[in-house]
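Q: Convert this sequence to structure tokens.
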Amino acid sequence: MIGYSRSPRLTKAGLVLIDPDSGAIVRLISLQYNAETLTRSLQIQSIGEDGDRSQALRLKGPPIETFTLEAVLDATDQLEFPDANAAAAEFGLFPQIAALETLIYPTSAQLKNQDALASAGTLEIAPMETPLALFIWSRSRIVPVRVTELSITEEAFDPALNPILAKVNLSLRALSVDDLGFKHRGGGLFMAYLTAKEQLARRGPTATLSTFGVASLT
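A:
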């Protein structure tokens, strides 16, 4: 018996890298195990207070939203069947770790191109743009992000010193239309994310004034 056929299909969280111009998928990075907790922080973007006086909330733009999570990587199950998992048997978790690390590295081709431009005497070299990263945590949360911090703790190794157990701490900053503009592909994806949030808010539990023990506000 292979398994219980009615077991729910587990949805994975992760990152999708796309070309900001064409929208083509560059790479998919699925978290091996979903993080047990996801910490979110929203920094309000509003007009500041004037001395001791305050005023009604006036928003300058979307809040700065950040995500922090810890993911576990474990090659133990794969190593039980080395013939079916040749990469894990040879390199352990190095391929998975490398996929995450390349999020914050320019490619070797980009570095070589910059060196060639510098050697040719180019006066101004534009910074290298990376693929646009989308953080996906269910179909209700797909948001363009920038990686702000990545730390990896390797906790166990095989005889060849390949890591076989690791914890990854990942911090992400959502990119809004304030960051990318409305014409950028990421700006459009942010607007879709915000629209989905507004739609979900309308589907939440409703209340009436009587819920608070109030008959009217006048």
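Residues 14-45+60-106+129-195 form one domain.
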